[in-house]
Design goal:
By secondary structure, the protein is mainly alpha-helical. The protein contains 15 helices and six strands. Bound molecules: 2-acetamido-2-deoxy-beta-D-glucopyranose (9 copies).
């Protein structure tokens, strides 16, 4: 009995020791502490990575994580490469970005071509733009263009799908008629186009991009997706069936973040113009009002009800990245953004006590402990909010004339046949809808038939 008691005591002591060692200790004033924390978090990310497994696909995470989310996660890891100055994952990130670029280097890989939406392509584009602005290792593979040319390929193919036939403009959510969501024009697709245009404009100094950014932003305001006020709202989208008057007023951090980030780049590219200062201030007002509670970031629409899906559980990651970038290229926002990021990072660290490794991160950063929800999205969010604390210790995003070295091609993607065919085919009549339904049926038949065929 005595022995048993001692054994039990020792076990409890070891267990307690294990917990304190395993939880993520975050000293927000220490770069080493922050980067140590992100080592653990990225190890958690790599648990989901297919590309490092035998027979796995480079650049993809395991099901149920979609292709777009891989784009988002690699964006966070690329920022980590830059902010922590740690090259351990450099080749993983490099290989992933090249493997998923597709045959035309515009982030339309053949594996995704049946299902890819404008938003998916746009999120990858934002990550590759980060490679451009962070002077990430340039591609050396034969035939591969520079990262900048790839972003221009994404931008050109996306913008060629601009559709004046309904809603007075805008991009549809889906690229292909057979996907459900083709009749929805959403903020994330248009927000990505806006942001890419703003970043390309700032980086290259080519005003054409800034004009496009202005046009996309104005459209989102006109149609009511962005409601400017001291606390600007960014809504999700609307359908072409109703000419975009049936707005889905749900708000997500990633929509707000992508539009906020784009506005910050416009502010910087226009040398601090008062019009973009006002818009940026308004968008920041909405961001802090709606997506922070007790100074800590949260996914207001679904977090407290624990109904966030896999996609939604990753949104705080790109939102964190955008807030951090905003605080560097629009320095007047830093006094608002920095304390919120610090409080959120500390909250996130307290959530990283779950899982068998003892440092798996949760969704809810207000709780002060782990909420039992875990996944790739939770890891990505914790990574980005914590590393964002280093943003002012490293250079701001480079441009072509101060540090960037990526080779561009402003015509990239323009002679792609699917781009132009789709663009000229955008008038949707009843006949086309029936056609689309038939294509959908055929596609499903081929997929189901193919699967059945393979089983025998
Ligand atoms: C960071 O990790 C290294 C290696 O594990 C360790 O030696 C160091 O003390 C850690 N630093 C901090 C500030 O936690
Ligand atoms: C760099 O990252 C790797 C992989 O996460 C990690 O093992 C290593 O400790 C990191 N180096 C430093 C100096 O933090
Ligand atoms: C495309 O999918 C196949 C089958 O899953 C896979 O083997 C291949 O690596 C994928 N290619 C890319 C570029 O994702
Ligand atoms: C576009 O056209 C140029 C010149 O005709 C050609 O060199 C290039 O390979 C083409 N690009 C694509 C993606 O088809
Ligand atoms: C559709 O919406 C656009 C933009 O708000 C507007 O300019 C256009 O007149 C509308 N068309 C119809 C048919 O209502
Ligand atoms: C940018 O703004 C500063 C301060 O207002 C001004 O001195 C400078 O000339 C402007 N530069 C350009 C390129 O507009
Ligand atoms: C634009 O960004 C740079 C950092 O790249 C910053 O130094 C500069 O102050 C910004 N411009 C304005 C007008 O805030
Ligand atoms: C960017 O990368 C190029 C090529 O590796 C290099 O020559 C240049 O010094 C880098 N710029 C910065 C600011 O590090
Ligand atoms: C600026 O960008 C536009 C749009 O891609 C392109 O047509 C034009 O050639 C570019 N101008 C320069 C000087 O590169």
């Amino acid at each position: 009995m005595g022995l048993q008691f001692i054994a039990r005591g020792a076990f409890v002591a070891l267990w307690l020791l294990g917990c304190t060692v395993k939880a993520i200790d975050l000293d927000t004033s220490s770069k080493e502490s922050i980067c140590n924390a992100t080592v653990l978090i990225q190890a958690g990310i790599m648990d989901y990575y297919e590309g490092s497994r035998y027979g796995g696909t480079v650049g993809m995470f395991q099901a149920p994580y979609y292709w777009w989310e891989a784009g988002e996660v690699f964006g966070g890891m690329l920022e980590n490469w830059f902010l922590c100055e740690n090259t351990s994952y450099e080749s993983v990130i490099y290989d992933a970005m090249l493997a998923q670029a597709g045959p035309d280097y515009d982030y339309m890989p053949s594996n995704q071509s049946m299902v890819e939406g404008n938003d998916d392509q746009g999120v990858w584009g934002i990550t590759v733009m980060d490679a451009v602005e962070r002077n990430f290792t340039n591609p050396t593979e034969k035939g591969a263009p520079g990262w900048l040319a790839m972003v221009q390929g994404v931008f050109n193919t996306m913008y060629s799908r601009w559709d004046d036939q309904s809603c007075g403009g805008g991009l549809r959510w889906q690229i292909f008629t057979w996907n459900s969501g083709y009749n929805y024009k959403n903020t994330i697709a248009n927000g990505c186009l806006f942001q890419l245009a703003a970043r390309l404009g700032r980086y290259t100094g080519n005003d054409t991009y800034l004009e496009v950014a202005d046009k996309v932003f104005d459209w989102m305001v006109d149609v009511g997706y962005i409601k400017l006020s001291d606390k600007a709202n960014v809504y999700d989208g609307a359908t072409t069936d109703k000419n975009c008057t049936d707005i889905t007023t749900i708000e997500w951090t990633y929509n707000q973040g992508v539009v906020l980030g784009g506005a910050a780049y416009m502010y910087n590219a226009t040398n601090g113009s008062s019009i973009w200062e006002t818009r940026l201030t308004q968008l920041l007002g909405g961001s802090t009002d709606f997506f922070f509670k007790d100074q800590i970031m949260y996914e207001a629409t679904c977090q407290d009800s624990k109904t966030c899906n896999n996609d939604q559980r990753s949104f705080k990651s790109i939102f964190s990245r955008m807030l951090a970038l905003t605080s560097t290229i629009a320095p007047f926002t830093a006094e608002t953004i920095d304390p919120l990021m610090e409080a959120s990072a500390l909250g996130a660290a307290k959530s990283c006590t779950g899982g068998s490794d003892g440092h798996t991160c949760g969704t809810n950063w207000q709780l002060g402990s782990n909420d039992g929800q875990y996944g790739l999205g939770e890891q990505a969010c914790a990574l980005e909010v914590m590393q964002s604390l280093l943003i002012h210790q490293r250079p701001a995003p480079y441009s072509a004339n101060d540090g960037g070295s990526s080779v561009g091609d402003s015509n990239a993607g323009l002679n792609k046949s699917t781009t132009n065919v789709l663009h000229s085919d955008l008038t949707i009549t009843h006949k086309d809808k029936v056609g689309a339904a038939i294509i959908t049926a055929v596609v499903i038949a081929v997929i189901v038939g193919g699967a059945v065929w393979m089983m025998f």
